[in-house]
Amino acid sequence: MRKTSAMVEAGILAAIAVVMALVAMYVPVIGAFINFVWPLPIIICCMRNGFKYGFMTLIVASLIVAIVISPIQAFFLGVIFGLMGLVLGECMHRRLSPVKVILYGSVGTIVALILNFIMSFAILDLDPIATMFTQFENSLTEMEAFYRNHGMSEADTKAAIDGYAEMIKMMRIIMPGSLLVSAPLLTFVNYFVAKKILGRLGESFDPLPAFTEWVVPSWVLAPYFLSLIGVTYFYVNKLTHTWMYEACVNVQTVCTFSLVIQAISLVYWYVKHKNKPSWWAGVATTVIFFIPIFTQIMVYVGAADMVADFRKIRKEYK
Question: Which one, of 126, 115, 89, 94, lies nearest residue 179 by Cα?
Fold first, then answer.
């Protein structure tokens, strides 16, 4: 009876995964978000019924997506998001702590991304990164024509296009670091949503540490400042074409993200500790992410918190 119930549930969740893939493919805006949480049916099935049934859900959903939409879409969803879903679901099935679930899930996501690139080359003869940046570069021509057709001067048009071209160049450089940063974000979003859904189904899990108590390991400061020195050195000496410069930029990207998270946690702690309106923290977070100068300021705030331990919650400083 239990086996039959698990198989029925796996079939239903596979159907939900196919519907989510269709929404992600054909519905603008909402589809983009649905794409990121596509692993949810796999996570739920794996957590409730075990790895075997979660894997069955993934295979069935991927096969139907390949038939209904395209094999490439099924390949993309199955390799990247499917593997993440299996890892998260299995970790939750084993009742690991939330920190370990997110840690293992992030590792699984990174492995899935690497496998996706390798298999894209080997099986599909496709370079997904090159394809993406080719599309970006092609859009510059369309953007240039748009600016000219709307009366922008040649000088202003050139300045705008050069700025976008430089941004695309930097995006290409920091791609590895961006993938490392995106892995825990994707994992956290899927874990958070899955936990909410499973909670409605009667499951219970240990809570995550309160965001106001999050701490980034202090050793992050060492690679951050070393990468900062390296980036400055290679830039001043016009060595930005070297792999060492790109490595320093990627290390700096990952460390910067970590320090900003540390600073935002401190902001939320301050708002709560001082009994200020909670929306203050939300506004501050929005400003931090959308105004570069404030982002850089918060990097140094996060670094200062690592050293001074303003909240007095770091065990190594007690």
Answer: 115
Which pLDDT does position 128 carry in this prediction? 66
- The beta strands (E) that lie in the chain are given as none
pLDDT tens digits, 289-302: 778 788 888 899 99
Dihedral sign computed on CA atoms, order 278, 282, 287, 292: positive
Two tokens at 313? 């919650």
Instruction: Give me the helices (H) in 94-174, please.
Output: 98-122, 128-149, 154-173
Question: Cβ contacts of residue 216 below 8 Å, gap of 6+?
Answer: 258, 259, 261, 262, 302, 306
Dig out the tokens for 212 from the structure: 């106001």
pTM comes to: 0.81
Q: Strand, coil or helix: what is 217?
A: coil
Positive/negative CA dihedral, 34, 75, 17, 94: negative
Can you say how many angstroms the Cα of residue 218 is from the centroid of all Cα atoms in its chain? 22
pLDDT, tens digit, 9 for 90 and up, residues 153-173: 777 777 777 777 777 778 788
Rounded-to-integer distance, Cα 299 and Cα 214, Å: 15
Gap between the Cα atoms of 64 and 62, Å rounded? 6
- Sign of torsion over alpha carbons 240, 246, 248, 253: positive
What CA dihedral angle connects 102, 105, 111 and 115, to 10 degrees? Answer: -140
What count of other Cβ atoms lies within 10 Å of the Cβ of residue 112?
21
Inter-CA distances, 138 with 90, 161, 170, Å: 42, 12, 16
- Sign for the pseudo-dihedral over CA of 223, 192, 198, 22: negative
Segment 10-25 shows an average pLDDT of: 88
Question: Which has the minimum average pLDDT: 115-119, 131-135, 239-243, 310-314?
Answer: 131-135
Structure-token match 């020195």, residue found: 229
User: Per-residue pLDDT tens for 260-306?
Assistant: 999 999 999 988 888 888 888 888 888 877 787 888 888 999 999 98
